[in-house]
Amino acid sequence: MIEAQQLTKRYGTTLAVDDLTFTVAAGQVTGFLGPNGSGKSTTMRMIVGLDAPTSGRITVAGRGYGKLRFPLHEVGALLDAHAVHPGRSARNHLVWLADTNVIPRRRVDVVLAMVGLTEVAHRRAGTFSLGMGQRIGIAAALLGDPQVLIFDEPINGLDPEGILWVRRLLRSLADEGRTVLVSSHLMAEMALTADHLIVIGRGRLLASGSVAEFIERTSGHHVRVATPQAPGLAALLREKGATVTANGAEELSVKGMECRDVGILAAGAGLTLYELSAQRASLEDAYMELTHEHADFRAPADSPLRSTR
Ligand SMILES: Nc1ncnc2c1ncn2[C@@H]1O[C@H](COP(=O)(O)OP(=O)(O)OP(=O)(O)O)[C@@H](O)[C@H]1O
Which Gene3D superfamilies match (predicted)? Predict the structure, then answer.
């Protein structure tokens, strides 16, 4: 389990992480989401002691990273895919890591096989593609067989087959009861990978919950009804406790009531409906809505590349 309590990190005048409190539970994949520059990498670096909090604390199994006796056996991290010396082979890099952390060398071959690099283990890391670099980083994270794993943007540079492989790996690690925290700025990817989401923007916690809860809380869903008798139907719906907004003369947006009940109510009152449909926000819409105000970099509203959705 990873726990952050009022975690804050300042770099000069930049408040990179701002009073974050969250828990990452064991046995599930937790997606750590936020726009560029929102503080994900800084938070992850603080988990493994590469940065010190300005205030607050972040612990693994109740202890700060500096208090862990055999850190690589307790926390595995992929933070920077370029962290391997370009002149070193994948195997030598892992052997060096194993030797300095009292890990048996046979474990190197196990993790090389796990990440599919056995065949190229003797090639110099400098000749590796970004995707292969990611795989070495993942192998290094798995080396000490730790219960807690953190991956910063692990699918960066991977092809579709590689992305699928990472997704399955994260799932299997969580199914073994490990704590898995994975950062991304892609909501669509996290929706396929994660069970739980922690969303941050400009260093602050914006949401924490399951994927379903996330949609419900941010955008929820509503029923769209088109009828020539909109005022009459709106009054009936409000009497039954629904929240109704008129969109033009013949269209209503209804919250707090499902399609079925709206249809039964309209039929009972002899009202004509042209349309009755459930409108569910996509996860991507909910994420954009939540983080829009908290993004450091965004295209101007009149940018031709900006989505018009
Ligand atoms: N070593 C540093 N010195 C100064 N500012 C930093 C440092 N590291 C990060 N920052 C700043 O802190 C903020 C958070 O950065 P961070 O890299 O943690 O965000 P992120 O969510 O991981 O972004 P991305 O998705 O782009 O990797 C940014 O404004 C960044 O410029």
Answer: P-loop containing nucleotide triphosphate hydrolases (3.40.50.300)
